[in-house]
Amino acid sequence: MNEHAILGQLVLGHSLMLDRERRVVATRLTVFPERRDASPDPAALLRELLEVWPATGDAAASPGAMPTLGAASPAADEGPVTLTLREVAPAAHAADPSGSKPRLVPAAATRPAAGSPILGGPTAATPLSLNIASEPWLRALLTLRPPPHLMIEVPAFMTGDDATAGVLQALHAAGSVLIIKGRPLTELRRDLLPCFRHSLIDLGEERRSAGEAPPAGVERRITLIQSGVATRADVDAAFARGAVAVLGWPIDDALPPSAPGKASGKGVGPDLQIVMQLMQRVDREEPIDRLEAVLRNDPQLAFRLLRYLNSAAFGLQVEITSFRHALMMLGYKKLRRWLALLLASASPDPALRPAIHAAVRRGLLMEELGGTSADAEMRSEMFICGVFSLLDRMLGQPLATLFQSLPVPERVRQALVDGTGSYAPFLTLARAVETGLRTDILEAAEQCFVTLEEVNAALLRALRGARELDLT
Question: What is the pTM of this model?
Answer without folding.
Answer: 0.78
